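Input record (one chain):
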Amino acid sequence: MTLHAVKINLHACETTLHAIEMTLHASEVILNALGMTLNACKVILHACKAISHASKVVLNAIGSILAVPYSISPMLSPPAPLRLAHFDALRDLAREGPVEVTVRGSCMAPRIADGERVRIVAARVYLPGDVVAFQAGDGRLRVHRLLGYRPWGRGIALVTQGDRCPCHDGAIPLDCLLGRIAQPVRLADRLRAVLAALRLVLR
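The corresponding structure, as predicted from the sequence alone:
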């Protein structure tokens, strides 16, 4: 091998080493970028957790203001009407877990006594005979028994009535429903609710 050929080979080796160094440098840049991206993801995740925690604190605060001391009235008596935003917050709490409230009035006696504390839970399906809590047209929360459903606009609405009330309530849209009382319902109560609904239909 001539000296010229050796020089050419050395130059090729130097070029290859330079290319390898550039590749390593590019790899370091990519790794640094990935590290920065990972750190950014961690920051975003931490922020999301903080937001989630803050949301739970806010909901718990609303619950402590509305759900615990608030009384549901099955009759046309105090407490004062709930604002729409407050009702939405209370309904969200019921979807997360049971909401404990105090019932005022005797429309559901002896099933639910005046001053009795009950738990309200959201359900996927509400059956005739369930004791449901809802926001009435005057903004107040009521606890009455579900008799059935009726057409309402382009959807359906609930038909409810207190056990000691002489007549049924007006149509209750589904979005005004808070939940049902977390108590077993007797078969006799369900049958009475179905019969009451049939009487309304046959009028």
